[in-house]
Amino acid sequence: MPRSAPGARPDADRAPAVRAVPAGRVRLAGRAPSRPPAGAAFYTVSAAATVLPALVAIGTVIHEPVLIPPLAASAAVVHGAPTLPLSQPRNVILGHLLGAATGYAVLATVGSSPWATALAGAATVALTLLARAPHSPACATPVVVVLQHPAPQRFVPLLVGACVLLVLGEYAASRIRRNAPEYPAYWW
Length: 188
Description:
mainly alpha
């Protein structure tokens, strides 16, 4: 065991979990979380592997893409970390709706360009925070809108339906698996 400097605490060579830094900010120091147990990982993958193909199947039947990249990211958050505020139904559904609305507003005012997608993504971050519904995958929804110009009368109902399916999928999955955290922590 290494020797401590005279007058130092015996545990001074260990980094504290939380250190105070100037201006009242807190800096976290530590390691990444441990790997989840195999059962929990299997549960997460199974839940996502059930809901995502269902979205693809629905899209195939109605000849419209229902599974868009932001929804795959939402599935990862909802099924992988169901207790986080980002995963709660309010955040998932309202976040994607705000993202779509922002995308259509930017598309109507600025047009479609890479700069417009950046603007729409940043505006979605701000709007979801103001609405107390942050959901990071929803910040990619306006990118889809600005770059692909989907018809809102088709896209928005499909988006809402897909979000509801993700939420209900995790709701059902959390009731099936023993010792799973109860989902949702709150509905709205």
